[in-house]
């Protein structure tokens, strides 16, 4: 400006000052306009702008902020807008409410005030709806529905990222579950096929050993060898049958014949079956059974198999010369069979591990057994809609088999109805086992 004053009169100085300002503004405007036009044609108008950087910074902050911080920020923004609008409305109405222009501005500010409040409410409501969707997805997946997928297109911001993470988790779980099912199916098929292939030569070995034993061999050494062969082949036969049974029971590939079973009578008959075997190890069987009849719905042969495995487990692993307690009680409309005994070996294992396949409480494996008995018992019980529980307290081993009670009857009424032919002829546990061995359904 001082330079211009050297060339023009003082009275024309304001004009030249204005002209110079206009030229500067015009030149800057032309340069900015051409720069924006060039960026627009190159497609970089928004990419490198400060506005995009500011928006990206806000988005990044919002994604990294927690839900609590985001909700608090929205609420504080809401309060600030409300306070400013209320102050502005009061100022316009109180100081200059007489003029029509300020009345118009008053209504404009009021509409803006209502719009901002509505926008804040909409944002909070939308985020709440999105979180409800996420909560529903997590609840659905927790029930076992690994095929559930969230529609992330309706989600925004941090909720969309969380929805994508949930979908990734469900995809991973679904894949892992399918692989596990496939692996279990392959295991079951392998066990079944291998057991079937072993069965034929094993049957020949057992038959030839039996033929040799009938020859009345005089040499005691050869007779002892034959006896060992007979014992080991029978053990291998039992192990093979247990493998097939455990495979089918765990996979649910069993055909059940559900009928009315008198649990008290079944336990009494099982006690009689094992009385002599318990006497070999001086095990005293103490039973506490009710006088009334408890009717449950189960498969008689499979339930007998469950009880047989529990009694066999007690025979093998109970402390010699101790007592084995057996009782049947009714608890909350359920029939509870309980067997308790003191273990001969320390039970340094959890109940869940004890019911896994090929796991035994006898860690040293000094007794013969496949480690499948309790696993088979649990699987068969669950297939019949019952409950199988193992409780370990020190050296005390306690097993429970629980079924819903269908009905209760007096023993005299039960026997009278049976004698009158109103009930089907019952099959003893021994006959069930004979039928199982002959049919080889397992």
* Total beta strands: 7
Instruction: Summarize the biggest pleated sheet.
Output: 7 strands, mixed
Q: Mean pLDDT across all residues, rounded? A: 77
The shape is elongated
Structural class: alpha+beta
Give the low-pLDDT segments: 363-367, 437-442
Alpha carbon gap, first and last residue: 109 Å
Query: How helix-rich are the residues, as a percent range?
Result: 55-70%
Write the element-wise H/E pattern from the N-terminal end onward. HHHHHHEHEEHEEHHEEHH
Q: Percent of residues in beta strands?
A: 5-15%
Discrete helix count = 12
Radius of gyration: 43 Å
- Oligomerization: single chain
Keywords, please?
alpha+beta, 442 residues
């Amino acid at each position: 400006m001082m330079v211009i004053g050297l060339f023009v009169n003082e009275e024309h100085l304001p004009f030249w000052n204005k002209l110079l300002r206009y030229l500067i503004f015009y030149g800057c405007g032309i340069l900015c306009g051409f720069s924006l036009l060039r960026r627009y044609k190159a497609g970089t108008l928004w990419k490198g702008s400060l506005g995009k950087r500011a928006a990206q910074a806000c988005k990044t902050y919002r994604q990294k902020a927690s839900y609590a911080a985001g909700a608090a920020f929205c609420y504080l923004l809401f309060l600030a807008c409300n306070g400013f609008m209320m102050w502005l409305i009061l100022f316009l109405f109180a100081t200059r409410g007489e003029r029509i222009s300020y009345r118009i501005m008053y209504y404009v500010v009021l509409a803006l005030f209502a719009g901002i409040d509505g926008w804040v409410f909409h944002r909070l409501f939308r985020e709440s709806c999105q979180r409800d969707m996420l909560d529903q997805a997590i609840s659905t997946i927790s029930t076992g529905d690994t095929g559930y997928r969230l529609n992330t297109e309706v989600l925004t911001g941090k909720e969309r990222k969380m929805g994508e993470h949930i979908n990734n988790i469900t995809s991973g779980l679904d894949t892992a579950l399918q692989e596990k099912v496939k692996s279990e199916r392959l295991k079951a098929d392998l066990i079944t096929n291998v057991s079937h292939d072993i069965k034929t030569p094993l049957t020949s070995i057992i038959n030839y050993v039996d033929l040799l034993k009938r020859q009345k061999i005089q040499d005691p050494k050869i007779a002892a060898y034959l006896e060992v062969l007979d014992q080991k082949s029978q053990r291998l036969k039992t192990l093979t049958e247990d493998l097939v049974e455990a495979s089918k029971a765990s996979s649910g590939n069993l055909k059940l014949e559900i009928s009315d079973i008198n649990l008290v009578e079944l336990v009494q008959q099982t006690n009689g079956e094992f009385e002599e075997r318990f006497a070999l190890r001086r095990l005293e069987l103490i039973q506490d059974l009710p006088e009334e009849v408890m009717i449950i719905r189960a498969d008689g042969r499979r339930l007998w198999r469950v009880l047989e495995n529990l009694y066999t487990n007690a025979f093998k692993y109970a402390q010699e010369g101790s007592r084995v307690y057996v009782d049947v009680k009714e608890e909350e409309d359920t029939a509870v069979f309980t067997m308790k005994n003191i273990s001969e070996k320390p039970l340094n294992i959890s109940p869940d591990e004890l019911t896994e396949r090929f796991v035994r409480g006898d860690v040293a494996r000094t007794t013969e057994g496949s480690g499948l008995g309790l696993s088979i018992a649990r699987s068969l019980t669950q297939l019949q809609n019952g409950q199988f529980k193992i409780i370990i307290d020190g050296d005390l081993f306690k097993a429970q088999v629980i079924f819903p009670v269908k009905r209760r009857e007096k023993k005299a009424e039960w026997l009278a109805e049976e004698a009158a032919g109103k009930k089907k002829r019952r099959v003893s546990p021994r006959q069930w086992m004979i039928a199982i061995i002959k049919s080889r359904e397992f």
